[in-house]
Structure formats: C-alpha cells, structure tokens
User: What shape does this take?
Amino acid sequence: MNYTESREQSAEILRTVLSHLGQHDAAFHPVSFALWYEHVAGINPRLSQQLKPLLDSGARLTEAKVMELFRAYIAPVDQQAVEQISGRFARAMVGLAESAARTGDDAGRFGDQLTGLVQALQAGGSLEPHVHQALENTAGMRHSAQALQQQVASSRQEIEQLQAELGRVRDEALLDPLTRVLNRRGFDQRLAAMLEQPSEPGREHCLIMLDIDHFKKVNDTHGHVTGDRVIQALGEVLRASAAGETCAVARYGGEEFAVLVPHTTMTQSAALAEAIRQRTKALKIRNRKTQDVLLTVTVSAGVASLRTDEDALSLIGRADAALYLSKQAGRDRVTCA
Assistant: This one.
C-alpha cells in the first residue's frame, strides 16, 4: 500500500503511533510501527477490525501478536531491509530517550535549586548564592530544552524517512520483479480487498484472466530470454491499458496475468480485455542487434463478474473457465463467463 498522507498529517499520526507503541509490550521496531501507523491512519480497515476488540478489552499486544497481525494484514518485507531500518529506528528512539532523560535530570536539579531559594527567602538568609545558582540552572534548562526540541525534530524526520522506506520495501514485496505489476501475493490482497467492498449501484466487480498463446513454442524456438521479453512487453501493455483506471494488474503465474476491475460493468470489462488483446497483437518483438521482427504474440482472455455471495476461488475459477473456452475456440479472443 502506498502512503499518501502529507507531512503535516503524518506528523499528527506519528504522535498517536508513539503513544500506542508505549502502551504495548512489543518492541519499538518497523513492524510494530507499520502496524500502528496503518491503524491510526485508517488505511487498513481489515487490520483495524482485528485490533478493535483487542484495544477495547485493554489487552497489551505482545511481540508475537504484533508479528501475527503484521503477517496476516500487512505485506511481509525483506528481512535484510527490516534489519537495516530497525537499526535506524532504534537509534532514533534511543537518541530521543537520552535527550529526554537529560532534560528530566536538569529539571530535577532546577527544582531542587528553586526549593533552596524558597527556603532561603523564608529564613531571611542571604539570597545571592541561591539566585546565582538559579540563573545558572535556568540557562542549563534552556539549553536542555533546546537540545530536546532539536532531538525531537531530528527523530521525527528520521521516522518519516523510515516510514517512506518501509512503504517502498512493502511495495517491492508485492511486485513481480520481471514485469513490475503485482505478484500473486499482491493480487490475492487486492482481490480480497475488492471482495470486501460492495459494488456501486448499477456496477459490479469483474476479473479478467489472460494467457499468452503458444508461449511454450516461444520459449522452445527463441529461448527463455526472449520469452521473458514477451512477458515484460505484455506487462507494459497491461499497465498502459490500466493507466488512469481503478483496476489492478497482476502476473498470476508464468505467462498468465489477471486484471481486477472493480465498480464496472461486464461490457466495460470485456471492452478492456479486447483492447488489451488488440494491443498485444500489435506488439513486435525485435532482434536487438538487427531490429528485425522476431515474432508477434497473441493472448486469450476470460472475463467474469462477481456473483452474490461468491468467494475468490469461485470468481477465479469462472474467469479461468472462460479463458479456457477462448483457447478452445482458436485463441486470440475474449470470452465472457
């Protein structure tokens, strides 16, 4: 998920996130930070739904519970990246804690000095040494407060950078490295989110499944490098076709792709599938040295719309069945379930 909150909004969210972190037993690391950030920002309804009864009961979230919720409702991140971000996050929090502790110590000494000054006033003794020390401590308190303010600003900036990096790592975990469209995990998450939302009046949720025709022959004849170029090219076609739309494109597996089209109509989804089919047919895969055309490819597609009380497996199965009918009918065509 992309984080779209402004700097000002994220600063407000950060204050509440830090409060949540302090109220629970899990360590201060990017995983727990991401969990609370998405909950506070209201951008992960499924996560918030799971957290609500826990928070209402006053339960303190353990490390194991945080990790369980993270794995279930937030995309897993690369372990090496987590460790790097975790180290930076820990340093930021330690620096902030140390600065706050120094300011607290200075405040304690200043309080003791003020007590001594009051006692001197009451006793009628000499005030000069007490006033002199109070002035010195006032200057020290001012310096400590300024240092704490600077440390808070620095820590906030560091945490904002960590937030951006964490979002980038999570996004990368959901992308297919070859095509830069969603991978299977990303597809499953987006499909689940689509199924949880009721369609708009007069609209329906649709799924397009596509498969490259005779792909095995492409690999056998031209090699797997050229096969990868074909897959990359289809990924570009799909991204271009979905540009400006609310749909999500994914590599479902191998040479098969999927397009989620929420809040649409069967007619519009079929038209999108047909546009993809035509654009793919117009592709020309060229020899990179001679620029001669090596091959052209086609795709077959199946389109299905979500039925009442239908689950993900059933919707995918019907779209796949429609795709199979396109293959049986001669390929290079679109079939609606």
The mean pLDDT is 81. The chain has three domains: 7-73, 79-173, 184-336.
